[in-house]
Design brief:
The chain is α+β, with helices and mostly antiparallel strands and 422 residues long. The chain folds into two domains: 15-169 and 228-318, Bira Bifunctional Protein, Domain 2 (BirA Bifunctional Protein, domain 2, 2-Layer Sandwich), CATH 3.30.930; 328-418, Anticodon-binding domain (Rossmann fold), CATH 3.40.50.800. The protein is built from 15 helices and 16 strands. Strands 1-5-6-11-10-9-7-8 form an eight-stranded mixed beta sheet. Strands 13-12-14-15-16 form a five-stranded mixed beta sheet, sandwiched between helices. A three-stranded antiparallel beta sheet has the order 2-4-3. Strand 9 and strand 10 (280-286) form a beta hairpin. The radius of gyration is 28 Å and the shape is elongated. The N and C termini lie far apart (56 Å). The structure holds adenosine monophosphate. Residues 82, 113, 115, 120-122, 125, 127, 259, 280-283, 305, 307, 309-310 line the site of adenosine monophosphate. The site of adenosine monophosphate has 17 residues, from strand 6, strand 10, strand 11 and helix 11.
């Protein structure tokens, strides 16, 4: 009978991969909490309307990538394609806003988009997401991008570029839209079908188009950054100034429009040239009007999301081998030694050490092979003779040395060895 496979574009994260994920998650939590972010966990499914209203009807995500379905009550639901809308919904629903303080939140988890799967692009993928509510200060824009760079570099990735842009506010964008529409109209039907449609519904989205011909046509397009109003320009200048003061390197890229409608003013993306065509590791921006549009108070907000699959791909390219904590493997030879080994392995674990044993009574050779494969740093060997003499052999797998320890205080000895005291 044919076995059942996972859904296309949805990946298992197998045990030998999980360490990388844990390492990235741990580092992300450490950095985010140092900057004052608190974790929030929202459901993976929401009312479909939430995403349609926030991300925008005429965006790629809502138009063609949503995992939308009707549940048994007839409600239209969707698996979340990103985290911001859900966090804003939760923020509004639970009245998380306070009068004075700003609120910094983060979420780590799976997102779902029905895209064409390829390297770095999946249908279930994972994001580290950060949001700040309650301030329009350019300091926060800069602090966020500074933190994003620190987080990515802190995980162990180098050679990234932070691209920044401003999308202006709805007022200055309106004037620009008309200019862009005129430009696009003047090109007649040279653009692809999608762009021709975007031209009418949501002209800014043409910049998202991946078709080379369209990108070439856009070379001479008017750029929003040249049309923003005085307030938006001052905000952007202040953000750049703070970034410079923080020593965070960036490049202004007027083509960063982002694929979602709710963004305004500062937008940004972190790119790596080692990822091929799916080269964005993370991105984000301001979305001052969204909380109000979703029924909440009129608070300013800004956020970003990092794609964990891409982050881990880069990490694995840079660091072929990840060091494993030195574990202990106990090889018991014969029935009584094996029973003693069983108690010893629990005692070692009880004292916080990573320990494993052979439960099957195999030969020394096969147990040593298994210990080697498991990546254990130390093997404790207990045979009949050692047991009678209340001794145990310790083999250091890296140094390839062997010594004899007293069986009575082997746990204490291993604690000292593991802490580097010996
Ligand atoms: P976005 O908000 O769409 O820019 O997504 C933020 C980040 O999530 C991107 O920079 C990617 O690293 C990651 N990402 C988005 N879509 C996918 C996907 N389909 N597969 C894997 N990672 C993704």
């Amino acid at each position: 009978m044919q076995s059942i496979q996972a859904v296309r574009g949805m990946n298992d994260i197998l045990p030998d991969q999980v360490r990388w994920w844990q390492r990235v998650e741990n580092k992300a939590r450490e950095v985010l909490e140092r900057f004052g972010y608190r974790e929030i966990r929202t459901p993976v499914a929401e009312k479909l309307e939430l995403f349609a209203r926030s991300i925008g009807q005429s965006t790629d995500i809502v138009e063609k990538e949503m995992y939308a379905f009707q549940d048994r009550n007839g409600d239209m639901l969707a698996l979340r394609p990103e985290a911001t809308a859900s966090i804003v919904r939760s923020y509004v629903q639970h009245g998380l806003q306070t009068d004075s303080a700003i609120l910094k939140l983060y979420q780590i988890g799976p997102m779902f988009r029905h895209e064409r799967p390829q390297k770095g692009r999946y249908r279930q993928f994972h994001q580290i997401d950060a949001e700040v509510f309650g301030t329009d200060s350019p300091m926060i824009d800069a602090e966020m991008m500074h933190m994003l760079s620190l987080l990515i570099e802190g995980v162990g990735i180098s050679g990234i570029v932070l691209n920044i842009n401003t999308l202006g506010c709805p007022q200055c964008r309106q004037a620009y839209r008309e200019t862009l529409k005129d430009f696009l109209a003047a090109k007649g039907d040279e653009f692809c079908q999608d762009c021709m449609r975007r031209r009418e519904t949501n002209p800014l989205r043409v910049f998202d188009c991946k078709v080379e011909k369209c990108q070439a046509l856009l070379e001479s397009a008017p750029m929003l950054i040249d049309y923003v109003c005085e307030d938006c320009r001052a905000h952007f200048d202040a953000v750049k100034d703070y970034l410079e003061k923080l020593g965070t390197r960036y490049a202004v890229n007027p083509r960063i429009v982002r694929g979602l409608d709710y963004y305004m003013r500062t937008t940004f993306e972190v790119i790596s040239d080692r990822l091929g065509s799916q080269n964005a590791i993370g991105g984000g921006g301001r979305y001052n009007g969204l909380v109000r549009d979703l029924g909440g108070p009129d608070v300013a907000a800004i956020g970003f999301a990092i794609g964990m699959e891409r982050l881990i791909m880069l990490l694995q390219q840079e660091q072929q081998d990840m060091e494993r904590a030195p574990g202990i493997f106990i090889a018991g030879l014969g029935e009584l030694p094996r029973q003693r080994a069983f108690l010893l392995v629990q005692q070692l674990r009880g004292r916080g050490l990573e320990a494993e044993m052979d439960y099957e009574g195999r030969s020394l050779k096969s147990q040593m092979r298994r210990a080697g494969k498991s990546g254990a740093g130390y093997v404790l060997i207990l045979g009949e003779e050692e047991l009678m003499g209340r001794q145990i052999q310790l083999r250091d797998m890296q140094a390839k040395t062997q010594m004899v320890l007293s069986l009575d205080d082997v746990v204490e000895s291993m604690l000292r060895i593991a802490s580097g005291a010996i």
